[in-house]
Design goal:
heterodimer; A: alpha+beta; 2 domains; 6 helices; B: mainly alpha; two-stranded antiparallel ribbon; two-stranded antiparallel sheet
Chain lengths: 261, 247
């Protein structure tokens, strides 16, 4: 029946064909275009996430950041080392970009001790001399800020994996995340286990062959070349281990939690 | 002699879709890229110690509400990079498999002919060289824009993961050069866009419509039918549709 009807239909004239195809194409164009505009408005005006471990980003965008992290973490490898440079190329004046968490007056570096949270109500206290007594590792590499600038800097200290091994924290360091905070708790970061245990991650106490200055995080700061500068915590107060993501200062303010390079 | 209207197929469906999908995505990538660039806006054009252009002046940032939106810019950029890449990838695969690349990629004569096309477009020369779907200048421009898109993905990845994709970073001439190239390519898109829109306006409705509905309408002299064969009276049409009109 149907076939017969089609055959009986008169063939369309050229003008009819033109009109018909124009109509279909332009209707599709405007429907798709309106959908796109609507979709964009929805995304642009989508609510911000409730601040928890992360905050400050539009909800769908945060989901995208987290999914994108999962994809790119597949490419992470301890064999991918940050490029290093000769000492002569290191900046004499190391850029200071922030003092969040280390701006309280009256901080006495001499009285400082590192606290490692090893269990419920269990804290391991470590002095700077204990850390300095262990083998020192130097790194001269291109420090990269999330803002877009970078600088070749010279740091030295104890490799984080050596630290973990020496203080017998290997079991604890099997947890998925490591959190660090300044003594006053005003700046804090969370690191995925594999980035923290990367062979170039360092607990630094020297820069340009001299002790780290206060504004750079004396007496002990984190240098983690596989992350943006925002994860390179100055003046480490406490270190903790967790299977959940620890709180992170910039992730609460809309930045990617991972922020890996 | 009277002419008749003929539908001539021009742009395949996939080309039209990917073209129009790319347009807003590229817009979002450029905008979110500016939100990111603002946080370290160090690029200038300097000659003989004099700064001619600073990217970008304060009034420009303020007019577009760019300042202090780095994290937002990154969040948008790292979502839409997927769509930009996938759409471009799909277009390239299609163009290769369908054979459309033959209409697109510059031929040996294109580079010489492109000058003649430009001279013609500037009304300096009367005749334009004969062409198929695209003229020589279009072949170069439209191929270049695809190569540029590929370049943006590569340089972007090099800046995004300079440690994990250290070889890409090396390939781009290092972190600094990769960022400069990524930025310069964006300026290239803006330049392309301006020329493209002017050309589309000058080319007129028939041409513009073909990127939406796929065909152009041309006036042809009628053909004499001899024993079921169509014989062209005169050869006025250089463009022969490679794809038969859909029946």
């Amino acid at each position: 029946m149907n076939l017969k009807n089609k055959k009986l239909k008169k063939e369309l004239t050229v003008d009819q064909k033109i009109n018909r195809r124009n109509f279909i194409s332009f209707a599709t164009f405007f429907v798709a275009g309106s959908t796109a505009v609507g979709g964009w408005k929805w995304l642009y005006n989508s609510p911000l996430e409730k601040t928890g471990i992360t905050g400050g980003a539009h909800k769908p965008l945060r989901r995208a950041l987290n999914k994108t992290e999962l994809f790119f973490r597949n490419f992470f490898s301890n064999n991918h080392e940050v490029k290093t440079y000769p000492k002569a190329m290191a900046a004499k004046q190391i850029r200071v970009n922030s003092d969040v968490g280390i701006n309280d007056e009256g901080f006495k570096p001499d009285l400082w001790q590192l606290s490692v949270i090893t269990g419920r109500n269990e804290i391991l206290k470590i002095t700077i001399d204990e850390i300095k007594a262990l083998p020192k590792t130097e790194i001269i590499y291109d420090f990269k800020c999330v803002e877009g600038w970078d600088q070749i800097q010279h740091w030295a200290g104890l490799r984080f994996i050596d630290f973990i091994e020496h203080f017998k924290l290997t079991e604890l360091a099997k947890k998925q995340y490591i959190g660090m905070e300044t003594p006053n708790g005003e700046y804090y970061i969370g690191l995925d286990r594999e980035s923290a245990l990367h062979p170039q991650t360092i607990l630094a106490y020297e820069m340009n062959d001299h002790p780290i200055s206060l504004e750079h995080g004396a007496p002990l700061r984190l240098i983690i070349p596989v992350k943006y500068g925002i994860k390179n915590l100055k003046r480490i107060g406490t270190i903790g281990f967790s299977d959940k993501r620890p709180r992170d200062y910039w992730a609460e303010l809309g930045y990617d939690y991972y922020s890996g390079l | 002699m009277k002419t008749i209207k003929v539908i001539k197929e021009k742009h395949p469906l996939v080309m039209r879709w990917t073209h129009w999908i790319n347009f807003p995505i590229l817009g979002i990538m450029i905008w979110s890229g500016m939100l990111i660039y603002w946080a370290n806006d160090v690029y200038t054009i300097r000659l003989f110690g004099h700064t001619f252009v600073h990217f970008f002046p304060e009034w420009f940032y303020n007019a577009l509400h760019i300042p202090h939106r780095l994290s937002e810019g990154m969040a948008f950029h790292f979502l839409f990079m997927w769509f930009f890449t996938l759409n471009g990838f799909f277009y390239i695969i299609y163009t290769i498999i369908s054979g459309e690349w033959r209409e697109l990629v510059p031929q040996r004569k294109s580079f010489k002919e492109a000058w003649l096309v430009i001279l013609h477009d500037l009304h300096i020369r009367k005749m334009a060289p004969p062409q198929n779907k695209y003229n020589a200048a279009q072949r170069i421009a439209y191929t270049a824009i695809i190569v540029m898109g590929f370049g943006s993905v590569i340089t972007g990845l090099a800046i995004y993961k300079p440690v994990q994709f250290y070889w890409l970073c090396w390939l781009c001439g290092g972190y600094h050069l990769a960022r400069i190239l990524h930025f310069a390519l964006t300026l290239g898109y803006v330049f392309f866009f301006i020329v493209h829109v002017v050309q589309v306006i000058l080319a007129g409705w028939n041409n513009f419509r073909s990127v939406i509905s796929g065909f152009e309408v041309v006036e042809e002299k009628p053909k004499i039918i001899v024993a079921g064969k169509a014989l062209p009276l005169t050869k006025i049409v250089q463009l022969q549709p490679r794809h038969e009109p859909k029946k």
